[in-house]
Amino acid sequence: MSLFKARDWWASVLGEGEEFDQGCLCVGDVDNSGSGYDKIVVGSFMGMLRIFSPHPAKPDEQTEADAQLLEVQLPDPIIQVEMGKFVSCSELLHLAVLHPRKLSVYAVSGTAGNVEHGDQYQLRLVYEHNLQRTACNMTYGPFGGVTGHHFICIQSMDGMLMFFEQETYAFGRFLPGFLLPGPLSYCIRTDSFITVSSIRQVECYRYETLAVATDADTRQDSDQQSKSSGKRLTADWTLVLGEEALDICVPNTSSAMSSIFVLGERNLFCVKDNGQIRFMKKLEFNPCCFLPYGSVSEGSTNILMCNHNNMLLVYQDVTLKWVAQLSCVPVAVRVANFPELKGLVVTLSSDGHLQCSYMGTDPSFFTAPKVDAREVNYDEVDTEMKMLQKVIREASKTQGMVHRVQTNKSTVYVNRCDTVCPECVLYSQVKIKNRGAVHSPKMTVCVQPPLGVTQDQFVLDSMGMILVSILLSQTSTHKHEVSRIPRVSQCKFNLPLRLVCYPSSAIKNAKYKITVDTNKPPVNLSEVFPDFSEKSENNDSSALGFQLITGSRVIVLASKTSQRYRIQSESFEDIWLVAKELVQRFDRHFASLGVKDFRNSFTGPIPLPEFFETVDHHFELRVNAQKYQDLLSERAVQFRAIQRRLLTRFKDKTPGPLQNLDTLMEGTYRQVIALADAAEDNRERLIQAFTRLRSATHLLILLLSLWQGLSSEQTAILEATLLPLLQDTPQLGWEESVDAAVSHLLKTCLSRSPKDQAISLSTGPLTIPKDTSRLKKHITLLCDRLGKGGRLSLSSEANVPTTVMMPGQKYLSLETLRVHSHVTLMLL
Q1: Judging by DSSP bridges, how do beta strands 68-73 and 168-174 pair with one another?
Q2: pTM, to two decimals
């Protein structure tokens, strides 16, 4: 950042909600006053044309009213404005305004006022041309060596150069190999036009060549085609840039040699008018606009350049001479002369900030005030020193004790509102309390997909109350920072079941059923689910229905004679959410009654066939995705080959039959589009299948933990093994990741003999398997060994996280942390 700022001489904000670009600004004596001072002409995409004559403001007057000479609302958007001698019967300056489908030339005149309101200015239309093609930009100059007049060249969006000799349309030419329009400029010395094509090369076309050339393209209109005659259009010279060009400028600084300046995205190029590079300057920033102008040194050029960091840089060729800070990011920059000051820098931003500034420094007359002399109280200084030393010692002791600081200093409370509106929205209040000083607190809210939050990150100024509204959209996280040392506090909480389902009537029969046993007498389901029993259509307390927002229905049936509860549904994976909620609510219900020996259990059998159906469906969609990718690659290669053959035929000087290549290309194109649509549809179904697979896996983990009475540590190991990924990727999928993790458990803690435990997991890259038979075998073997008394453990060598290398430098750890809905507080 520069130490100096551009000194404001005059500034104005144009309109409200208007947009501007680099062609919307020009300066000059547009009213032909003869004073030698410039006026500023600004046009906007809203069609508003404004003319200003800035002057410095006095302390007791307003500048905006008398500085603005004219403001006219034109019916069409303004793309570019230029001043030149555009009228045949006059050598005065006129204003050319380029619209998307029209070129208008105006005369600006001023009438001296006889009253205090000042002079009056008028805008008079001299002539206009209706364009047959949408315009992009224009340039002007004495084309063909004419004197005393300027002609106009307009570049259309489809690559046509349209030439206007003042009131008359001359001719039009299509640029060869055109794809997208680029910047356009005119070189007076060589009478040629400079542009940058879509292949990122500078191209030069002489006016004489354009005038006598014949278009090989049939896009030319019939009324213009008669004016085209001669040879085919070719470039006089070309120069490869290797990057996109933002602007081209050809300053008239020397009659012996013209320099063409091209502003790229990362470099500044200076090219001679014969196509040779004079110099190139690599930029360390992203430029937005530039303006070359004459220098006092012979053989050099000064360049004004603005970047997206609000900086104005002055170069003399490649040497940086000055840097100043601007108040906004300009899209256009000009140099103008005004009364009392010449050489002012005029900048215009995209949102209408027009500023006239100069570079320099203003003297500072600030003098430091005298410090009041007072006696030092050594007792207070000694007490303050001891307190600071104590703070330093405590901070050095607790640098490696993050968890203790989290627990002792900061507390996170989440107050949940269980009232859910029909749009499935949950509003939560998060309270954060801290006993110490907090600096730059940040908070992140994380929820499991498909749930999400309306705002996932918060930056707090104070430790107040934050309202978080949770929606079914995307994932989020919350962090805070305290006491200049990073600190993290986490608060995990469960979202209400009413967020994803609502009460429904109970049905007795369903396709998939599981049974949960308890060691206590059956309870009334209305007491366990009070939020669902109130609005339930069925008054039977032994049956309760849950209607998920996805459309499926889950029923919970309580036995009247035994201690068993049945959960059933037409969808296997949808049982997991209700089953998990039932187990958790049973634990809370009996804990509130003071029962300490309550236990949930599952007697089996484990529903592996139903689980494997979900696995097969997910794997089938993954295989289909790979097939679509291969077919798309083949058709793309075929399509490019046909394009090359057709291009060769079109470039051949001897016309020949196409031999149905155009028909073949059209058929291949349709196949590519059809395959792309099918691949996109398969991708969406794959995302849904992976979500169902995660739910089914959660249900399997829950049943295994109830079946064998697994502890929380063992359940965490099982969850990290069967759910290692949050989402599928083309490089790494669920099947190969789970197969590697299950194989590792079977060779370590669930091995039959101690010899198998010494065998480490292979560290080769994981690829998509040919089928799921091996994965099914390993999962079945895992359940079988757990049923025979095997216990999950990461003791001894298994305590070290085993890392498996994935394609693309991805890693999978068997100690993957469980992902829950939580709030994280980082204190720095």
Answers
A1: unpaired
A2: 0.47
